[in-house]
């Protein structure tokens, strides 16, 4: 195996494999290195006792007409990987202030939600409809330029510009904001919120690849190999080497690999502060990187059930007082959990081959601090208390339980290099002041170093954002390679 | 025990108090420190012998729109903003020495150009040209304004070809008056934005003076648990591990992970924090920012209420300061006519002076150098011009006092940390490359350090206005930063 490459991609998460596969297709000699034994990063699919599953709930939004579709088509994999947009997507539960739980079917398959049904669920009065319609029209019709004006506005600040009833406010702040951006509404970025709202309401949500997300990323990685790339798993990159202000390769526990270009899918903070090292950057850039705010972490449970309990992929619950804020999160950390929290249950066992016949795997969870050292027990207890209250049946059929939290997320993905970071469930993406035009540049100030993944290169929602970053960064890298390549 | 604050604001100028009050209202433990005995920075109010006044003529709060209205709204004291529009005068000296006065009520007239063109004595053909050029300057889309951030007033005027001399004088003079900069350096976008604001709102003077505005804001600050310490000079902003940790005064340390400096960009970076905490490129950038002009002021006390105008501007087609003239002025050679600016607070609000008397704050522009030598000669020239403009008032001048120039301004506000700087009348960033989209970022490259005030974060328009606008914009930035750091660092 040759040890000289054009490009080395550090990390085989969704962004890394998408980027690597495109570069390989374009004839760039690429090496993909990952510390894990499987492809897919946080979205890897594993097998156990006849179940196939991701470690936590993963679904992409938008569901139709996406960059994921485009990538598979570009790589010639659209026949191999089937993308499913489930219809209906699931059930929404809303608890009225008097304690009555009302439900509504959430459409899928790329179909938008019927606003009238949502109004009925939320008990919206006629007099409130014009203002809600004004908000929806503003959001759905908002241009990219106007979205960018919201890059440093929080979701709650944005919603506060409209006089809408509490129930609708909570639907947006709880489900559409915290449920997708995974940070409280007072630090979540309004431009991302509007973008995801547009995608969700134009192209639907809940996209899932047949066989699991990991299988799709494995297929993408396979195409990279077919196009001449090398892939090395179980190999930890310890250092990205720099000489004369320019990247020269990587140092791993399996030896040295050389390349004039390194694309890091290891997270911008671990890359700058640990893999490359502060000494190779200006103070202000180090300050900037260290000061980026990670998303929250995620704590939850996987229940392996002896009987299918869920009919649809997704069940969500919210009430008027489930809006989360930083203040609530800090109280929770101090030991004071809020009375009501937003809860969901989801499953991929409805897709063929994902569960043994007659059995089901259910996920649930809640946002928690991203610090891998967090004791997540209070969050898990609260979630289970709410599941027991809302969906007591689940507990009758549990054969096995597994818990997960920020420590597991960090172990699978990025190292913790700044206090409170490492176990973020999405990346750095959705925080006010670091999205849209303010998002970190995928091109680092060190020659030949790029970032790919949730942290840089695109915007939007989870897996879709990472794949889009992979595609955008691949183009940047190709141009850099074409203009900077050394004569061989 | 050392108390930890969520935010420390260094300097109680308008930017500092607006920002501090908004943060306190959001529930942050906020401390404002100021070296002076009174808050308000350059607009500090004084009260002597029954007169209430600022250190120099200050005027121009838009009544219907703008940051003052927005700030008072955000602080929940909208009804307290009491701005009085009264007679103001634009006085124009024709080349033959005759002064023509146009009186306005602070209110924008339907056709302000008519009177202006009359005083300029323009011929019909010249009027056509002038009208077209003024329209070109004032009616601009945001994109066109953005593009003008990179064009100086001089360049813009030159592109208009042959224009009547008084119109040329108008643009040159207003670079000094409105943007407080030199004709060759001020960005045309600033002038256009100022023309737009003056064109769309009535302006006036606050009842009780600017100190009353500061007091109203500080009441909200204190009611929300904010702490204000006056007579307390911050000597150092403390940094540990590349992150702000608090401030040190002569005898103690105040701790906070966020410091918002209203002490000026240059003194903050070069003196309070220290160059060693920044990249070379940033230090170079900060050192290179061009200051505004300075202002020399004096107070006339009248034994009778002779002044009819609350505010007046005296200009001519030739009363502007450009690079060459400023250099000449420094050598003691004062132009025949200077632009003169005066505010008589008691015309707006009679409670600003004892019964039967008046005080006029009057002065002209000069260099921002605290060691400026031209101050006395400029003041002498102002005296001469006043006699020409208001001959009937001269005999009622009881006394002249309160001579201030860049040295006193610097003492009251920002320290001089670079040669020739410190006494700027409004702050930095009025010139091409430093305003509009090029305005210095209010978020410094040092985590936890923000700038507020005229230097950073605000929008266009005259001095105090920019400071308030900066306070309004910087407060939410700081609040988010605070929430985020709480999330990550559990600070």
What does this structure look like?
- The complex is a heterodimer of chains A (488) and B (491).
- By secondary structure, chain A is of the alpha/beta class.
- Chain A has 15 helices and 19 strands.
- A five-stranded parallel sheet of chain A has the order 9-2-1-13-19, covered by helices on one side.
- The mean pLDDT of chain A is 93.
- Chain B is 36% helix and 21% strand.
- Chain B contains 16 helices and 21 strands.
- In chain B, strands 9-8-17-18-19-16-20 form a seven-stranded mixed sheet.
- The model of chain B has no long low-confidence stretch (mean pLDDT 91).
- Classes of the chains: A alpha/beta (488), B alpha/beta (491).
- Chains A and B meet through helix 11 and helix 12 of A and helix 16 of B.
Question: Would you kindly provide a brief summary of this structure?
Answer:
With about 500 residues, chain A is of the alpha/beta class.
Defining key terms:
heterodimer; A: 488 residues; FAD/NAD(P)-binding domain; 4-stranded mixed sheet; B: 491 residues; alpha/beta; Guanine Nucleotide Dissociation Inhibitor, domain 1; 21% strand; globular
Per-chain topology:
The complex is a heterodimer of chains A (488) and B (491).
Chain A: E1 7-10, H1 14-25, E2 30-33, E3 45-48, E4 51-54, H2 67-74, E5 83-84, E6 90-95, E7 101-106, H3 115-122, H4 129-140, H5 144-148, H6 155-159, H7 166-181, H8 190-203, E8 208-209, H9 213-226, E9 230-232, E10 237-243, E11 246-252, E12 255-258, E13 261-264, H10 268-277, H11 283-291, E14 297-305, E15 314-319, H12 326-333, E16 343-346, E17 360-368, H13 377-390, E18 398-404, H14 406-412, E19 449-451, H15 462-484
Parallel strand pairs in A: 1-2, 1-13, 2-9, 6-15, 13-19
Antiparallel strand pairs in A: 3-4, 5-8, 6-7, 10-11, 11-12, 14-17, 14-18, 15-16
Helix pairs in contact in A: 1-9, 1-15, 7-8
Chain B: E1 4-5, E2 7-10, H1 14-25, E3 30-33, E4 45-48, E5 51-54, E6 61-62, H2 67-74, E7 83-84, E8 88-93, E9 99-104, H3 112-120, H4 124-138, H5 142-148, H6 153-159, H7 165-177, H8 188-200, E10 203-206, H9 210-223, E11 227-229, E12 234-240, E13 243-249, E14 253-256, E15 259-261, H10 265-274, H11 280-288, E16 294-302, E17 311-316, H12 323-330, E18 340-343, H13 345-348, E19 358-366, H14 375-389, E20 397-404, H15 406-412, E21 449-451, H16 463-489
Parallel strand pairs in B: 1-14, 2-3, 2-15, 3-11, 8-17, 15-21
Antiparallel strand pairs in B: 4-5, 6-10, 7-10, 8-9, 12-13, 13-14, 16-19, 16-20, 17-18, 18-19
Helix pairs in contact in B: 1-9, 1-16, 2-16, 5-8
